[in-house]
Amino acid sequence: MKLRLYTAACFFAVLASFVCRGQELMTDSLEQTHQDSLAVTESDDFVTASILTATPSDVLYSCVGHASIRMQCPHHNLDVVYTYESEPVANRVLSFFMGSLKMGMTSVPTERMLADYGKEGRGIAEYVLNIPLEKRKQLWQYLDSKVAEGMNLPYDYLNRSCALGCLRAVRAAVLPDTLSFGEWDERLVRKSRRALLGDRTEDFPWDRFIIFSITGTEADMACNVMDKVVLPSDLTEVLQKATLNSQPVLGEANTLLQQTTGIDEGGWLTPMSLACVLLLLAIVSCFWMQRPLSLLLLALQSVLGLMMTYLIVFSALPNTSFSWLIIPYNLLPLLLWKWRKWWLLPFGVVCLVWCLAMLTHIGNPLVDNAHIVLVMAFAVNYMGQWNKTRNSNQNKITK
């Protein structure tokens, strides 16, 4: 009996030693796994961040290109692009002009984005963000929080542009530290947001004409220089000069996608060429076939006046509270056509004065130059009509 008890005691002692040893090995394994995990997550290449800029296309809403932020985590096999986007515009033009279009931060796999832009023949350049690991993690958290907010922001192409969204995200991620931008480029300091937008759209005359037509005086107002970084090209230019704790923020450009298609810039048929033709016809009509052109210009002015009145008075679209174009483009000539002999000359003079006023803002244009030439055509036509009416009345008195 004693022998059995002794044998059992030895067996349980050996078993207990094996259990304790197993627990020690398991604890050591878990501790090692935890340390390995910490080593991975604290490794500098655990998360990488970069700015992506896409080349322009000849579509209105992408004629200045696009900017987005790429986040990569090789450990978890994640590669995602974060970008401010609007609801589809192509089939919702009326919603755009009404101001009911929404926008917000979205995320898409980088592979899908590259495939979509590749189909359009657009190029993409990548600039690595040289910010500390903890700041990159904060950037990813910030971007995820913006995506979680959904597409609930009113579409605002001026104050919520893709470039501004990227810049604000990077600035928020480095807090409580701040980016140092050094001396700002004189162009950004001196020019208005409208002028900066105009500089980047000179190769797209129709897009430039439309943008200048719908953008109100908010684009001409003085603002913080940082809020002028509304274009992707300006974003990379600013970040390439920026530093964080005396270290450059942006790395050199790396081409992810080569541009494969050219851009249709409209050829000779531009807003300026059409406006010049109308001005020439207006001068000719002072002597010959005045009525057909007068009706054409009245119809054109009425259409433009209807658009401007709607944008200023009725639309909720941001940046349309007032526009200098409402002075020459309004519905009064159509509504008061019956009494035109009283207002033809005064309104023609107003149009000429308006043109002279716009020409004094060439460095910071308030309107596209094609508008100035078009309004000159209106002025010449109205003065020609007034002169014809006066001569007709004098002939009646003479008879």
Describe the structure.
The protein has 399 residues and is α+β, with helices and mostly antiparallel strands. The protein has three domains: 1-42; 48-257, endopeptidase fold (from Nostoc punctiforme); 271-398, no CATH class. Helices cover 53% and strands 13% of the residues. The protein has 14 helices and nine strands. A seven-stranded antiparallel beta sheet has the order 6-4-3-2-1-5-9. The protein has a two-stranded antiparallel ribbon with strand order 7-8. Helix 11 packs across helix 14 (369-398). The protein is elongated and about 100 Å long. Mean pLDDT is 86; it is low at 5-9, 11-16 and 25-40.
How are the elements arranged and paired?
Elements: H1 2-41, E1 48-54, E2 66-73, E3 78-86, H2 93-98, E4 102-109, H3 110-120, E5 124-129, H4 133-149, E6 153-154, H5 162-173, H6 186-190, H7 193-200, H8 205-214, H9 232-241, E7 243-244, E8 247-248, E9 250-257, H10 271-285, H11 290-314, H12 332-335, H13 340-359, H14 369-398
Antiparallel strand pairs: 1-2, 1-5, 2-3, 3-4, 4-6, 5-9, 7-8
Helix pairs in contact: 4-5, 5-9, 10-11, 10-14, 11-14, 13-14
